[in-house]
């Protein structure tokens, strides 16, 4: 009896796997926002350069953009090199903007002496600023233009 159940389950798994493969093949290829196949190299006319200096924010509470290269900054579970300049203990002598006090609050609103774990990975909110073409259409307008 156990052999019959095992054979039935095996046949069902094989049938469902083949059916899933057939559906996936019939769905068409993967497309990208670049308009080319995923594995197709695409040459760029010009590599966008990062804009130096601070840019104006488009809405209240927008995380500031990073006005300098951050490609060599290590951010992992143990190290956050952004804090070597932007932590409140170093910002004054480095001439860097200090982190907002919200970065020193835990999820219960308690003040901490170091950056909260929920704010540790800077690049989850802050990105380098660059003038790049849009991948998709965007009709966003800054809130100061709406009255």
CATH domain topology of the domain at 78-130: Flavocytochrome C3, Chain A, domain 2
The CATH C-level name of the domain at 78-130 is Mainly Alpha
What is the global morphology? extended
Low-confidence stretches are: none
For CATH, the homologous superfamily of the domain at 78-130 is named as Flavocytochrome C3, Chain A
Count the strands?
0
Compute the gyration radius: what is it? 25 Å
Distance between the termini: 75 Å
Main sheet summary? none
Structural class: mainly alpha
In percent, how helical is the residue content?
10-25%
What structural keywords apply?
transport, NapB, 147 residues, extended, metal-binding, iron, Flavocytochrome C3, Chain A, domain 2, mainly alpha
Q: What's the arrangement of secondary structure elements?
A:
Layout (H helix, E strand, L loop, with lengths): L1 H25 L56 H4 L4 H4 L53
Write up this protein:
It is found in: Periplasm. This is Periplasmic nitrate reductase, electron transfer subunit. Keywords: Electron transport, Heme, Iron, Metal-binding, Periplasm, Signal, Transport. Belongs to the NapB family. Residues 1-24 form the signal peptide. With 147 residues, this protein is mainly α. It has a domain at 78-130: Flavocytochrome C3, Chain A, domain 2. The chain is built from three helices and no strands. The longest helix is centred in the N-terminal third of the chain and has 25 residues, at 2-26. It starts with a helix and ends in a 53-residue tail after the last helix. The mean pLDDT is 82.
Summarize the structure.
The chain is built from 3 helices and no strands. By secondary structure, the chain is mainly α.
